[in-house]
Every structure is written in C-alpha cells, then in structure tokens.
Amino acid sequence: MDVYLPIANLSVNGLVIIALGALTGVLSGLFGVGGGFLTTPLLIFYGVPPTVAAASASTQVTGASVSGVLAHGRRGGVDYRMGAVTVGGGVIGAGIGALLFRFFQAIGQIDTVISILYVVMLGTIGSLMAREAWEAVRPGEASEKPPARKRRHHRLIAVLPLRWRFYGSGLYISPIAPLLLGVAVGALTMLMGVGGGFILVPAMLYILGMSANVVVGTSLFNILFVTMATTMMHALTTHAVDIVLVALLLIGSVTGAQFGTQIAQKFKPEYLRLVLAAIVLLVALRMFFGLFVRPDEIYTVVPL
Amino acid sequence: MKRVFLLFALLMLSAQRDPILVPEVSQDDIQVQQGFTGTELLLFGAILDPTGARAGQDYDIVVVLKGPTEPITVREKARVGGIWVNADSSAFQSAPSFFAIASSRPIDDLVDERTAVIYELGLDHLQLSPSGTIDPEEQARFTAGLVDLRRRQGLYKEVTDGVQISEQVLYQARISLPSNVQTGTYTAETFAITRGRVIASAIAEVEVRKVGFERFVEVFAERQSLLYGLLAVLMSVGTGWIAGRLFAMI
After folding, report:
1. CB within 8 Å: B35 and A2
2. Do B72 and A304 touch (CB under 8 A)?
3. Beta carbons within 8 Å of A214's beta carbon, 6+ residues apart
4. Among A252, A227, A197, A216, which residue's Cα sits nearest to residue A97?
5. Can you give the pLDDT at residue A144?
C-alpha cells in the first residue's frame, strides 16, 4: 500500500508506518510511556526527514496519551494543579528547545546533540529502572524489604520559597520545582521528539516525591499538553508536521494501545518494568555504538 | 545592411550544415498525488537534416533532465575524540535537486573535457557554484561526496547507453524519476553531437507539481500554519478520544 506523504515529500509503504505506530501503541499500553523514543529514530531510519519525523511523532504522542489521561482522570489519578504547573514549564521549555534546536542546526551539530542526549537519558533511566525492577523481581529479598523508600521530596526542593498545596500529590512544596522539571522535559520534547514520560515519571516519584497513584496520570496529562504545544510550534516554525504520516501512525498506535493494555493485565508489573528497562537500554546501547562506528553516510545535505 | 546580410549568410551556412532537432517528452506535466511512486519519462524525437536527406553522418545524442537548482550546504563527518561528528562543511549555490544524463555512447568518447564542462555533460561536470573560499582540492572532495550521495538516492544518474538511435533519425531515452523528487520546473535538454562538437540542442520543459489533496495539504501547512497545527492537534486528540471511548465500551 503506497502512500505519498505530502510534507515529507516521499512515498512510503503505509502498512509499515501503521505497524510502526502499532508497536509504539503496544509499548504505551504495556508500560504507560509514549513510545516517542522509538518512533522518531525508526521513522528517520525509514527515510523520513528528521525534522518531519520528530514533529509528526510528537503529534502522534498527543493522540496516544488522550485515552490514558481520560482513564486516569476518571479514577482521580491526575493532579490537575501539578499538571498545570508542569505544562506551564513545558511550554516555556519547548520554546527554549526550539531555540536550541535552531542553534545546533545552524552549526551542524544537531544530530550529535540528539544522539548524545538519547544515550545519556536512556542510559541513565534504563539502568535505574533495571536495578529497581531486578530488586523487585528477585525472590526472597523483596519480602524482607517492605516498601523501602519513604516518599519524600528532595532536600533542595524544601528550601525553595513560595509553597503551594498539591492535594492530589499529597505535597506542600514550592511550584518552582515542578515548573523547572516541566521546562527541562519540554526542552527535551522539542529536541528529541519524545513525550518525556520516561523522565517525568521517575523525576516525579524520586525528586518531587509525589504519591505514586497520581504520577502516571499527571505525567500523561503533562505529555498531552506539551506535545500539543510542540505540534503547534512545529506547525508555525518548521512546517514539518505531516498530517498523512500522523494519521497513519495514529491508526496503528490507538489499536496497538488496546492490545498493549490487555497484555499488560496478564503479567506482573515488575516483569513489565524489567522488559521496558531492557528495551530502553538496548536503544541507548545501539545509539552509543552508533556514535563510534563509521556512519554509512559521511556527507549530508541541508538546504541553505 | 552589410551586417544584416552577413548574419543572414551565417544563418544560411549553419542551417545548411547543422541538423534540426525535434525533441518531445512523453509527459510535460507530472502530477504528484496519492499513489505516486515515481514515474518514467520517455524523451524522444527526431534529428532532421536540412537538406531533406536522411542525416548522412553519425550523430550521437545526449539527453539531460535537470531539476530545479537550490542552494545547499554539504557537511562532512569526521572522527573527533572517538565519535563521529559533522566537521567541515561547504556551500553550493546551485545544486540541481535532480540530474539525469543519458547518452548513446560514453560521454568521454563523444566530446573533450572542455566541451563537457561548457554543456554540463556528466556528473563530473555539474556547475554547482561553490561559495566561500576553499581550496579546489577540498571543493572536489565535497562535490564528489554530494554526487555520490545523491547518486545512491537515485537523484543523480548517468546512463552511458541510455539513448537508442534508430536509422540515424529517431532517438529515444527513458529516465525514471523516483518518488522523492522535488517539485518545480524541470528542463529536458537534448544535444546532437558529432565529431566532438555539439551541433544542435533543444530544450523542453517538464513541470512536476503536486495536485489535489497533496497540493492542498502543502499549501495549507505553508499558508495557514496556525489552522493546520490546530487541525493536526484536533485530529490527534479526536482519534485518541474515540479509541478510548470504543475501548471503554468493549
């Protein structure tokens, strides 16, 4: 099934793109992450220009996170106040990200920056997750250790002025901390074309110390609105959102997400986390080696 | 008066010696839309001898199909501290987005280096107008890199036996355009060559453009970017929401 993408300017096999979307969807259903960290590199690998890939992937993540936000919202799993603060930061971050993107593009180092960001981010998060999941899976010791961590926010956050009450998260902290977190994730969203769930969730748990039952919902809420903002930013500045590509990805991801959710119910969450950690680490390793191996193309062409 | 006569005489003279090229392109309007996976152009025509007789001598035909030119930067990766990063770069003011050349015999056998450069015959003789002051050796390296890259993308090609000439009168060449070609005005130029000299040339234009839905999307994204962005977001949210509702029902 050949489909011509009017913005990317090339003809692709529509079924491949739908399958790619489905893969992302299964991942998001299984693990509650957007899966943008896989879509963007795979699209580029398939021949879609990088900017179009990043812009369209972020639009697709919007669609993938809607149903999650609705589901979590129904059972009170979204702290809207916290979400609003991180979204506010995210929009600022997306703006900063766009400026950084343009700067690195101008000096020709955007590819390297993106690769290094992927390696560092995915490598760190992947190994943290793997360790935590491994300890949970390991028989015997898990029972000796009752819920090990006391839920508590980082010391640095306590010194920030201007405290707000976040009832959903069970926190009384300064909004500056989640705002800064939002800025950082927003910048990464714009730079890497990812939703940022894999950074937000651990940061909300371990740095802000939010209560676990609102973390995933609030993170999805943030992703939903920040990807909307990045879509708009791409539409207005780079004109790189390919609506046909987005539609194909969406068809795949919304159906894939249903399968993912059903599979997720059959397995223990610890094992799922271990698998996700393995996937994340694999992507990070692949990109790490990619930095050192002689690239297929020594020369690249960019329009002036 | 004398000058007019001289000019006339010259015209007569040249008309007597040089053949007339009548080129034709199978399609002068290529429409890019859903299902477009590239297309094949047939460039054909006739070589007529003005004396009426069939062209007595051997002609060789070279056909060049060239896409719109654009200014580009070519970057070169190099190993810096163990990792591969973009190091040097070079700018070209007029790189053709597509360049295909077909000839009845290898170009080297037809014309000398100088003529090939003048008429831009062959991938080694593209006039890319490099800008900035870098030494010729470096420039040659970047040019070779660009040509090699685009050749493998199917955007630059050279077919040394791509033109068939029958009975020294009719010629035809097939050039395929891949789906990732740029839109714009393409020129199809035909050269008749004999004894190392270009004796006749003719140009035909081919318009490659998006039509229908594809054209609409492109213009929409470009001119109404705010509305386009909102529509993309709406579509995304809508699909996600509907899927969520459907799933909740199951």
Report:
1. yes
2. yes
3. A76, A77, A78, A79, A82, A168, A169
4. A227
5. 47
CATH number for the segment(s) B17-210: 2.60.40.3880
Across the A:B interface, residue pairs with CB atoms under 8 Å apart total 172
A residues 52-71 lying closer than 8 A (beta carbon) to B: 59-60, 62-67, 70-71
Domain boundaries, chain B: 17-210, 212-250
DSSP-derived 3-state class of residue A148: coil
Residue identified by tokens 């101008």 is A106
Q: What is the mean pLDDT of each run of 10 residues along chain A (304 residues)?
A: 82 90 82 74 82 86 81 79 88 89 83 83 84 75 50 64 70 77 86 77 78 80 88 85 91 82 76 82 85 81 78
The owner of tokens 């000019």 is B7
Report field, pTM of the whole predicted structure over 0.80: no
Is the confidence at residue B156, as pLDDT, over 90?
A: yes
Residue A191's region, left for phi above 0, alpha for psi from -120 to 50, else beta, is: alpha
- Asked if residue B7 has pLDDT above 60, the reply is no
- Which chain B residue has the Cα nearest residue A233? B229
Contact A50, A284 (CB under 8 A): no
Residue % of chain B over a pLDDT of 90: 18
CA distance A100 to A110: 9
- Give residue A142's pLDDT: 47
Q: Does B91 touch chain A (CB under 8 A)?
A: yes
A291: contact with B, CB 8 A cutoff: yes
Best of A69, A241, A299, A300 to disrupt the B interface (most B CBs within 10 Å) is A299
Q: What is the 3-state secondary structure (H, E, C) of A25-72?
A: HHHHHHHCCCCHHHHHHHHHHHCCCHHHHHHHHHHHHHHHHHHHHHHH
Q: Which ipTM score applies to this complex?
A: 0.81
